[in-house]
Amino acid sequence: MAAAGLRAFARIADHWGLAIDEQRRLLGEPPRSTFFAWRKSPQHAALPRDTLERLSLLLGIYKALQILLPDAKAADAWIRKPNSAFGGSSALALMLGGNVADLLRVRRWLDAARGGGWS
Predict the structure, then answer these.
(1) Is 30 within 8 Å of 51 (Cβ atoms)?
(2) Residues 26-80: tens digit of each pLDDT
(3) Structural domain boundaries, residue 47
């Protein structure tokens, strides 16, 4: 899971236009050297449980957006748009709060939207 998750996250980060510091924040603030080692050799990455959980949530968020918004550009842009469900902040701003709970909140909201509660 670690290597595949890191490779997938790198592609998602490109689609979402995430800066390096944003990527690190979403992954739990690994040291820069560790982050770049993961990117260089994902197959050798020994990820902490927290990072694995974050990767799982981020992959789920990406997948849910692709289902809800079949236009890839709209799906990728959604994370930066203000959303009343998050107090007027974007999903990305919420997720950059740094807590796994913030990622989980976005994931749950999207899962609920897939079930018909989209707003």
Answers:
(1) yes
(2) 999 999 999 999 999 999 999 999 999 999 999 999 999 999 998 999 999 999 9
(3) 2-117
| Number of separate domains in the chain | 1
Which of 51, 64, 45 lies closest to 113, judged by CA? 64
List the Cα angle 57/59/61 in 5-degree steps: 70
Q: Answer whether residue 118 shows pLDDT above 60.
A: no
* CA distance between the termini of the chain: 32
Dihedral class, residue 87 (left if φ above 0, else alpha if ψ from -120 to 50, else beta) = left
Helix (H) or strand (E) holding 64, with range, is helix 49-68
Tell me the C-alpha to C-alpha distance, in Å, between residue 89 and each of 25, 38, 96: 17, 30, 11
pLDDT tens digits for range 76-114: 999 999 999 999 999 999 999 989 999 999 999 999 998
Name the residue among 61, 22, 15, 20 with its Cα closest to residue 39.
20
pLDDT for residue 119: 46
